[in-house]
Amino acid sequence: MRRQEVAMETSPGRCDTGEGFLVSQSKETGQSTTYHCLNEYQCKAGAGVDGIIADNNMFHTKDELRPLWWVNLGKVYKVLKVVSTNRIDCCADRLRQMLVHVGEKLETSPMELCGQSIGPAVDVQVIVTLCKTLPEGQIVKLTSVNSKPTAFHLTEVEVYGV
């Protein structure tokens, strides 16, 4: 199923309603490692911003202490919120703590913390991370913080900005 877009940045006559514009869909992505899923599964970084919410479509890393996933928005935005949809079919409780950073570069030190989620999460949970400080940046990075090596996987990530 495809998630309906709230607003499109390029649509003439559309205005920001306070929720911001969806600025992440189909943008360049990356992840720290890539888990090689079964043939019927899509587990590459781009699945995180393709608009498809399905049990076989997600980004998925290998087991790591701090696996990460990122999206390059293409230009600098003021980020209002990040909406993440957890994995649907299983294993959602692997997500214990997730940090969301925004910045110009991928390195954490110059990036500003937008917010965090403390789990454990549940299947199909939609996690809304509000960026109270309205950080500005081109890169949005999500990091899963673990006490032992664990995979990081989400079905969809939507970044809203102005």
Automatic annotation (TrEMBL):
Domain Fucolectin tachylectin-4 pentraxin-1 stretches: 23-161
Arranged from A to Z, the UniProt key words for this protein are: Calcium, Disulfide bond, Lectin, Metal-binding
Pfam families found in the cross-reference section: F5_F8_type_C_2
Record has Protein biosynthesis as a keyword: no
Q: Which Gene3D superfamilies does this entry report, sorted A to Z? A: Galactose-binding domain-like
Question: Transmembrane ranges?
Answer: none
Biological process (GO) annotations held by this record are: regulation of cellular defense response; regulation of complement activation, lectin pathway
Q: Give this protein's Gene Ontology molecular function annotations.
A: fucose binding; metal ion binding
InterPro entries in the cross-refs: BG_Antigen-Binding_Lectin, FTP1, Galactose-bd-like_sf
* Functional summary from the UniProt entry: Acts as a defensive agent. Recognizes blood group fucosylated oligosaccharides including A, B, H and Lewis B-type antigens. Does not recognize Lewis A antigen and has low affinity for monovalent haptens.
Subunit annotation: Homotrimer.
Q: Member of which family? A: Belongs to the fucolectin family.
- PANTHER family reported for this sequence: F5_8 TYPE C DOMAIN-CONTAINING PROTEIN, FTP DOMAIN-CONTAINING PROTEIN
Q: What is this protein called?
A: Fucolectin tachylectin-4 pentraxin-1 domain-containing protein
Q: Which organism is it from?
A: Mytilus coruscus
